[in-house]
Amino acid sequence: MNLVETSMQLTHRGALAMIVAAVGKAEEIGQPQCVVIVDASGVALAEIRMSGAKFLSLKSAKAKARTAASIGAKTTSIPEAVRPLIGLATDGNVTGLEGGLPIVVDGHLLGGIGVGSGSGDQDTEVARAGLAAIGADL
Predict the structure, then answer these.
(1) What pTM, to 2 d.p., does this model score?
(2) Do you know which InterPro entries this protein is assigned to (predicted)?
(3) Fewest C-beta atoms under 10 Å: which of 30, 57, 68, 123?
């Protein structure tokens, strides 16, 4: 029985590279965004609210990142029927809103990225740019 195991983790440099790439994509599409990167336990490693992004979207971006990290899947994987109830039950910490993706590298779940302030498609596009910066599985 193993009492200790080795695991991969996202570094601060990786989180910063993701933020830079996500901001670059948001600027490219002309939509200021809130971007949050969390580790596998849901702790924020990096976050930014771009100038012009909706300040309340920072809260939804964090919920998206934590949800993706918790379930190891995109936030829209949460069934539509339970989204309102799960949001209420978790005080808004779990969401089915579009824009949250897991950070998976070589099959290892390292955390989540959450993006908010644009349309769902824009949020996801910006999140995917963040993942691509570190070679995460898309």
Answers:
(1) 0.96
(2) GlcG_carb_metab_protein, PduO/GlcC-like, PduO/GlcC-like_sf
(3) 30
What angle is formed at CA 120 by the lines to CA 103 and CA 10, rounded to 5 degrees?
Answer: 15
For 26-75, the pLDDT digits (tens) are: 999 999 999 999 999 999 999 999 999 999 999 999 999 999 999 999 99
The CATH architecture one would assign to domain 12-132 is 2-Layer Sandwich (3.30)
- 100-105 and 108-116 strand pairing: antiparallel
What is the C-alpha end-to-end distance of the chain, expressed in Å? 34
The whole-angstrom distance between residue 77's C-alpha and the CA centroid of its chain comes to 14
